[in-house]
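Troubleshooting log. The previous run stalled partway through. Resubmitting the same two chains, unchanged.
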Amino acid sequence: MAKDEMNLHSEALERKILLALETAPRVDVPEGFAARIARQLPPQPAVVLTPARYGLRAAVACVAVLIALMLVSAPLAMGNSTLWLSLESIFCAQFGLLAVWLVARRYRSPSSF
Amino acid sequence: MDSAGSSFEQIVRDHQAMVFRTLVRLTGSREYIDDLAQEVFLRLYRALGGFRGEALLSTYLYRIIVNVAQDEWKRRRRDRPLVSFSEQESEWEERLPHPSPDAEQQLAERQFRYSVETQLQQLSSIERTVLVLYHQEELSYEQIALSLKLPIGTVRTHLHRGRKKLREGLQRQEQTERGSAWQRTR
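Second attempt completed without errors. Output:
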């Protein structure tokens, strides 16, 4: 009996706590608060767009590496080795593609170089 | 005023009531609330540049409110004495005549709310924040977890622990009040 009463009391307390927590405090927002905030806003810093140009840098680095590889593999490819001839062809093809891409990029956006 | 200013003014207007009531609950005081709300919106404005819309603006805003409230607690510990908003409210409210016949019940409810506010301020900052966001602001576990950058399980734990501490604190307070009332009657 006493246990039931305690349970009832505990449940009632729980309900009261939840009600108190759910009741938001009454707060009056000062008149014209939003307008005052908007007036005090600092000027937005100008957005400086400095493109990183990672793609261009990577392409130039690849071109340099490919030139070095072609120079190294050219004498070996001359010796009738199929492997080196294939590699030299692949390097040449990659070099050609990169060169086309870089030239196309230059014509598309003249300021990118 | 430029268009950015006027659109931000609209954001302020849409969220100002939520910012004020949450700050009052989290800081436990109405003092400096205007300045704190202003700080919240200025921080939001500064942060809007990095806002990519991956989270709701309100989630972002709740995170800023919690940070500002925590800064206020730290500042208060250093130099400002706490003036409870419930105390401030009760000062003038108690001078008014009770308008309805069940005034006693209203008074009891108000006193209970005041006790809850007092006990709420005894909780740890994170427990108080989770309780306020869940019960007052009706955010889901996921939204609270996003706002506070906590795992959902941790949010649940803080909520459960916060409620338990609050209940125990209120029960202790009730027992103390009963004890002192009994002593007065003797």
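Takeaways: The interface with chain A takes residues 1, 4-6, 8-10, 12-13, 16-17, 20-21, 24-25, 30, 33-34, 37-38, 41-42, 45-46, 49, 85, 112-113, 116, 120, 131-132, 135-136, 163, 166-167, 170-171 of chain B (CB under 8 Å). Residues 89-96 of chain B have pLDDT under 50 and may be disordered.
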